[in-house]
Structure formats: structure tokens, C-alpha cells
Amino acid sequence: DMTIGKICCIGAGYVGGPTCAIIAHNCPSIQVTVVDLSEERIAQWNSDRLPIFEPGLDDIVKGCRGKNLFFSTDVEKEIIEADLIFICVNTPTKNYGVGKGRAADLKYIESAARMIATVSTKSKIVVEKSTVPVKAAESIANILKANVKPGVKYQILSNPEFLAEGTAVKDLLQPDRVLIGGDQTPEGHEAIQALCWVYGHWVSKDRIITMNTWSSELSKLAANAFLAQRISSINAMSAICESTGADVTEVAHAVGMDTRIGNKFLKASVGYGGISGFGGSCFQKDVLNLVYLCECLNLPEVAEYWQQVININDYQRRRFANKIIESLFNTVTNKNIAIFGFAFKKDTGDTRESAAIYICKYLMDEGAKLHIYDPKVEEKQLITELTHPAISDDPSRVKELVTIHKDPYEAANNTHALVVCTEWDEFINYDYEKIYGSMLKPAFLFDGRIILDHQKLMGLGFNVITIGKRLQRPNVHRPYAQAPAQ
Ligand code: NAD
Ligand code: UDX
């Protein structure tokens, strides 16, 4: 009997929390409990201030919480009672041992699987929602089977998540597709149908696709690799633009109008070719995961192909930081520099793998004094990122060089340069005349997201430098990507 009355989700993070809120919201007959080992995270989910910021999420959580949506640290109890379990734990890049720096670290997945195997007393559907290498479901199945109790049967499904941060609620409510992979056996099909039934409460049938487990696992890595590749492709073009006088916005527009290519993820307005290409917790990790998988499968040419997507992203970050330093007469030591935006994209407080971290690192390495403002990133989070051993080996130096501001005008006051690192909407409409007036001259503005009105800013007196385009001051025939001669 595959009726789903209770769902347990292991992992109350960016995926587990929003996904379960949407399930609870759309399936009043199902009781959904999200569990986590972190007491702090669960307490936040149960408070007025949720641990993550996502537009629209507060209302949905507050509407269901205590009715059919619960957050708990009692992992064992909720596993025992559940008919279906989502595994939504983190799968970061391994930072030790074999595959260090590339392979996905599956220790959290394994511990979740062992916990399920240890405590379960009835049959369950176990759904792998975390992003994993191909064949991870087999490892979960092996752990469960090796520890099985009499009368208990498991079906393992792969159901990767495609939500993007900042638009999680919209993506979950109106997904492009829901992907479910499972065993191609009668029991497997029955489990697939049970999960289809859950999504069927709000997603139309033609958007729910089913396939074998390995196709499903690989599709997730493939989708992220394709998306990341588009960004690296446009970023590679941006470098050519800067050396030739072409404008990457125009190139993206022309290329994107080909319906076979499409204009998304090359968008001529915001974000494309962002400050340093892509950030976020997924793209780099998942492409590296794919590269490592290819190496293990003895497919070195394929591995190298995808590795290049990462290399271009690293290159773009360094290139932008170098441009800042060069423009500021090759020295930023002791110069005040304002950083607008620290999140990896707008509408999220998430900073994982944010481009801003690397830009700040390169500037701190040169001794610049940073004045950082972000509308959503918490101060503690920001300091944690900048004092990470890979970013700075001396936390006291971070303290000395970094000031965090609650007001953008204060952050910009008395600085030599302003660097836009995140495409927050509010940055577009600031009073740049006022900002210019409060800055040291010559005042530089580096638009790493191509969101501001460059002509207008130049009119105010700013030296504007952006990505994928050389700007010229009105009536002055000098390429502005280069440092003006002293
Ligand atoms: P996260 O770090 O925000 O959340 C994971 C949570 O799992 C943490 O709170 C952690 O404490 C908890 N956890 C770990 N082991 C546990 C255990 N044994 N028992 C209970 N709780 C445990 O991670 P996330 O961003 O939600 O990502 C989760 C997975 O989803 C990853 O595999 C990621 O690749 C994938 N994914 C993420 C996104 C995204 O936008 N963040 C999108 C699609 C897919
Ligand atoms: C991504 C995938 O989009 C999502 O489907 C998957 O489930 C998780 O990973 P996310 O990382 O949350 O989602 O955000 P996304 O909008 O994809 O942006 C990732 C990074 O790429 C950001 O740093 C963003 O600024 C950058 N980006 C995006 C660009 O530089 N250019 C673009 O055109 C789009």
C-alpha cells in the first residue's frame, strides 16, 4: 500500500525547507515534517524570522506551520512514522582525501541512509533529492538492504530539485518540470506513481517526467553543467569584447534572439556575465562533481571539456579584480573601496561561492580597506566567509580591513571606488549624484553586474568600468577600461 500520509524531510536547508512548505501548502491531507540535526536551524524555522530569505516564503510557511507543516530535531521519531522520506542534506565538494576539491562529499547522505536503516520498522519510499553523482541511489539502496528488518521494504527514487535561490517559491509552484527516476520494476513504478501523486496536487501531469534512476541523477548534473556553461560562454565572449570594442550586451542580444539558443541565462539586462561569472552553492560543486565522475569513468576528454567551464569562471573573477586594481593606478593599498552586494545573486541572503568573496579576497590581498553593504546578508555570515582559511589566513587582518555598513551611502562615503558585486534592484535607483559627491576624486565605479546606467554615471563625473564593454567618456576618445594616464 503506497498511500502517502506522512512525509519526513531530512535536511532543513535551502531546498528542504521551501520544498516541504510548498508540499504542505498544496497537499492539506499530507503531514509534512522537516527534520535537521541543527537545533539552531529548526528553532529559526519555528520562529518569526526564518533562517533563509526567499520572496513569498514567509507567508506560505506561516500559513501551514503547526497545521500540516512541522519542523523538528526528533529525526528518529519522524523517520519511523513517515511513509515517504526526502533526503535533502547537503552534498558539498569534498575537502579531504580521495577526490578532494572535486568529488561530492556523500557523508551526510550516508548518515541519513544509515539512520533510516537503523530505525525503520515499516516499508518506505526513500527519495534522493540532494544533488548526487550518478549511481548514488545504488549506494543508498545497498546501505538500506544490508540492514533491513523483516517485513520492511524500501524503494529508492531520484527526484532532483531544480529551484533557484531567490525564486524558490515561484520555481516550486510552477516548475518547468518535475523529474522522478526509479527502478524499472512493478514495485519501482508503484513508488514513482506515489510520488507523482504528491506532485500531482499542483503540477500538471505533462510536466512530471519519469525515467530510470541513473538518467534522473545524471539529468540534474547535466542541467547545471549546461547552465554554467552558458555563463562561461558569454563570459569568454566578454573578454573578447573588452579587447575589441564589441559590447557583450549587444552580442548576447543578437545571439539570444536565435530561438534555438534562446535569451535566458544570457540576458541582455541583468546578471549575465555577472561580476565573475557564476556563484552559488550549486554550479561549481556540481560541475566539479561531473568532472570527477568522468575521470572515474576513464573519460578524460569529457572531464577536460567540463573542467574548462570552471576555469573560465575563475578567470573571469581574477580578470575583474585585476581590472579594479589596474584602474586604481595599480595600487589599492589603504584605499577605501565600497562593495555593493555580497550575496551570490539578488533576492537571497546566501553567500556560498559568491563572486563578492573572491573580489574582496583579491582586494584584501592588496591591502584595500573594504566598506561592504548588502541588503540581506547577515554580518556574521559575511565575516565567516571572509575569514575562511582559503580566503584569509589572518582573521585579525580581516577585522582591520573590513567594515560592514547598514547604509549604502555611508559605505560609499570617502571611498576611491565603488564596486557593484550583486544585482540587487535597489542599487539601480540610488542617488548617485549624492554618492559621487561624497567620494574621493577621481571617483571610480566598477559595475560587475552591468545593471547601472553608465552614460548617466559618466555624466555625473564617475569613471565607469564594466564587464564586456569599453566605456568612453562623452567627447573623450579614450578607452576607459584602461587606467587613465596620470
Ligand atoms: P543546506 O546546507 O542549506 O541544508 C542541508 C541541511 O541538512 C543542513 O541544515 C544540515 O544540518 C542538514 N543535515 C545534514 N546531515 C543531516 C542528517 N544526517 N540528519 C539531519 N539533517 C542533516 O543545503 P541545500 O542548499 O538545501 O542543499 C541540499 C541539497 O540540494 C544539495 O545536495 C544541493 O546540491 C541540492 N540543491 C540545492 C539547491 C539550492 O539552490 N540550494 C538547488 C537544487 C539542489
Ligand atoms: C542554480 C540552478 O539555476 C538551479 O536550477 C539549480 O537547482 C541550483 O543551481 P542558483 O545557484 O540558486 O540555481 O541560482 P542561478 O539563478 O542559477 O544563478 C547562479 C549564478 O549564476 C549566480 O551567481 C548568478 O548571478 C549567475 N548568473 C546567472 C550569471 O552570471 N548569468 C546569468 O545569465 C544567470
Automatic annotation (TrEMBL):
Protein's name in the database: UDP-glucose 6-dehydrogenase
UniProt binding sites for substrate: 161-165, 220-224, 260, 267-279, 344-345, 449
InterPro entries assigned: 6-PGluconate_DH-like_C_sf, NAD(P)-bd_dom_sf, UDP-Glc/GDP-Man, UDP-Glc/GDP-Man_DH_C, UDP-Glc/GDP-Man_DH_C_sf, UDP-Glc/GDP-Man_DH_dimer, UDP-Glc/GDP-Man_DH_N, UDPglc_DH_euk
Organism superkingdom: Eukaryota
Signal peptide: none
Transmembrane regions listed in the UniProt entry: none
Keyword NAD: yes
UniProt-annotated binding residues for NAD(+): 11-16, 36, 41, 89-93, 130-131, 165, 282-285, 352
Cited function: Involved in the biosynthesis of glycosaminoglycans; hyaluronan, chondroitin sulfate, and heparan sulfate.
Keyword list, A-Z: NAD, Oxidoreductase
Gene Ontology CC terms, in alphabetical order: nucleus
SUPFAM superfamilies: 6-phosphogluconate dehydrogenase C-terminal domain-like (SSF48179), NAD(P)-binding Rossmann-fold domains (SSF51735), UDP-glucose/GDP-mannose dehydrogenase C-terminal domain (SSF52413)
